[in-house]
Protein: Isoprenyl transferase
Organism: Uliginosibacterium aquaticum
Amino acid sequence: MLSRLISSTRGIPERNDVPAHIAIVMDGNGRWARKRLLPRVAGHKRGLDTVRKVVKLCVDQGVSHLTLFAFSSENWRRPADEVSFLMQLFMQALREEVKKLHKNNIRLRVIGDLSRFDSELIETIRSAEAQTGGNTALTLSIAANYGGRWDIVNAVNAMLASCPEKRGAYTEEDLAPHLCLADAPEPDLYIRTGGEQRISNFLLWQLAYTEFYFTDCLWPDFDEAAFAQAIDSYRKRERRFGRTSEQLAGGSDKQD
Ligand code: IPE
Ligand code: IPE
Ligand code: MG
């Protein structure tokens, strides 16, 4: 079990046909709606249907961790009415889905700087996390007001507070436990829908050796076939983690 948490820069993570951890930037909701002459928020609503489907697909395929980018630290820059719709949708989804998630043995948690959310939303998040905290089929992490740079700065501050005496001698191992998702294996597969090929301040540290998969498919259109295509592409990747193909062919693709 512990070997799955091996750092990709410190050792060689286990090779698996089904990714243990998938991280997804769910992009393209607005364009999906605009194409249909609908308001952008209609796309966000449909995007939630895709979330339900993808969660189920992950459970069915034995993916143990799914991390979804729902709202970035930069998404506050959007028009106020879209931001407020997204907050309401988030709250409503948490309330409506938590029972079902719990029934399906799914652990839910929210990563990001929650301090900017109103107290009712924070309470709803905490209660959903508490209710599902012991579940083991899938860990579903929702990134909300999350930014990769925030995550790193937050971890640095926590690290400095926890061992101030180490000044000047900190290592990756000192920092890593303070980052979001420290208890999850690093993502094996990063999927971004919507055609853009960028990270947009998602998991900057955690994606060090993740396989990237970009698709033009808009998030509300991302279905079982599109998901299967992403997994298929992942299966064909040669994950070298700094080594050569010849080394892999020679059988050194094993745990450090
Ligand atoms: C992603 O879809 C959802 C969020 C960022 C909340 P977008 O809203 O970014 O959709 P596009 O990129 O404008 O189509
Ligand atoms: C990234 O999408 C954030 C989420 C999907 C939540 P954006 O649509 O906000 O990204 P940019 O602005 O195009 O980079
Ligand atoms: Mg977008």
About this structure: The first strand starts at residue 21 and ends at 25. The CA atoms of residues 146 and 256 lie 32 Å apart. Helices lie at 29-35, 40-61, 80-103, 119-132, 148-162, 172-175, 224-235, 245-249. The radius of gyration is 19 Å.
